[in-house]
Amino acid sequence: MLAAVANALRVKELRNRILFTAAMLLLYRAGSWLPTPGVNTAEIQNLFSGGAGSTILGYLNLFSGQALQNLSFFALGIMPYITASIIMQLMTVVVPRLEALQKEGEAGQKKITQYTRYLTVILALLQSIGYVILFHNGSVLGGTNSLTSLTPRSFILIVVTLTAGTTLLMWMGELITQRGIGNGQSLIIFASILVSLPVGVSAWANSGTFQRLSLPIIVLAVIVAVVYVNEGQRRIPIQYAKRMVGRRMTTGGSTYMPLRVNMAGVIPVIFAVAVLFLPPTIGQLVPALNFLADWFAPASWASMILEFGLIVMFSFFYTAVQFNPTEQAENLKKNGGFIPGVRPGRPTAQYLDRVMTRLTLPGSIFLGTIAIAPTIFIKYGGFSQAVAQALGGTSILIVVGVALDTMRQMESQVMMRHYEGFLK
């Protein structure tokens, strides 16, 4: 492993990508502690210590890298952008104009990305307004009122600052994706969860004997299972016939098309968490809908069932976005390739679609099970809230999944330059 890391750092381009990613994540962590003008941080922290940390705000605080409890510059985190991405991807199926843009290739995708950015700013603006109102009336959360010296001027200043923080974070995530290593938004959530791990480990160390002995076994089992399934793939044999290209005869050959069991990676889990936060957040902000905060509270059965269903749904949805059987079949046909025993063209597309469906179903069920099983164990095992938030199934799944995806991208960069890779 150390030799593989040394090989990666030896390549100038890859080294620059790694350093750029690290620099962006360090800037993100610095902004998470940068106080928002007009906010008394001590008042917000007292609100979280008074009981708000055990509500949905505790989990929102987890995915913001502990920035929400300080109402800092990046208090909203990257979740508004994730929510906007979900809405835009769903709308491409419903709105013909967006569907046409998606089929236009790179130019259409740039337009959809621009719409996603606009929607992110709108969602961040609405969410920041809701947070300021909620923290101003902290008694709704069972704590004391914060932001007691709120004026119209400070209200506008805080809302604009929080919205600008999310906009900047969205831009940093896109820069990481373009110039760094891995998916920028996923890495930001990855870094946010890692910040909370020391708190969770400390709470686990102060737990009882049963908790101290059982939790490492559960965490290790989840990590092994995630790695095993994420690396699993179905290899479809591909045969290429000899054909004439210009005046040269190309030689045929055989290869395979790797179809991963979990082609969507950790994206369905992140999407599911973003949607799962909506009902309890609305319940906290709107007193008339307070029952939503109770029904879909973190680790409640309604919340876990909804999370399982959303993960399965988004797994199929994101796999369909990433893998187009018709397009793959057409590419094979153009290049003179075929699957032995399957006719080229439409039969090949139907075959690939059937195989992909059979792979995605167990993969999505696995993701949903891994996400909620440790949470159920922690809920009924007598663990504290800090352990449930930092070391729950969703947190572990996101951390391991993002780490694997990032390592896989580094692996491809290293192998392109004929070095020995990370994954063996």
Tell me about this structure.
With 424 residues, this protein is mainly alpha-helical. The chain has one domain (2-416): SecY subunit domain (Preprotein translocase SecY subunit, Orthogonal Bundle). Helix content is 69%, strand content 6%. The chain is built from 18 helices and 5 strands. The strands form 2 sheets. Strands 4-1-5 form a 3-stranded antiparallel beta sheet. Strand 2 (243-245) and strand 3 form a beta hairpin. The longest helix has 35 residues, at 346-380. It is globular and about 80 Å long.
**Relative strand content:** 5-15%
Q: Give me the number of helical elements.
A: 18
CATH uppermost class:
Mainly Alpha
CATH topology: Preprotein translocase SecY subunit
Q: Mean pLDDT score, rounded?
A: 81
Q: Can you write the helix and strand succession as a string?
A: HHHHHHHHHHEEEEHHHHHEHHH
Helix amount: 55-70%
Query: N-to-C terminal Cα separation, in Å?
Result: 10 Å
CATH H-level homologous superfamily name: SecY subunit domain
Number of discrete domains = 1
Question: Looking at the chains present, what oligomeric state does this protein adopt?
Answer: single chain
- Shape descriptor: globular
Derived from helix and strand composition plus strand pairing, the structural class reads: mainly alpha
Largest sheet: 3 strands, antiparallel
Strands, count: 5
Q: Give the uncertain stretches in residue-range form.
A: none
Q: Architecture, CATH level 2?
A: Orthogonal Bundle
Cα radius of gyration in angstroms: 24 Å
The strand line-up of the biggest sheet is 4-1-5
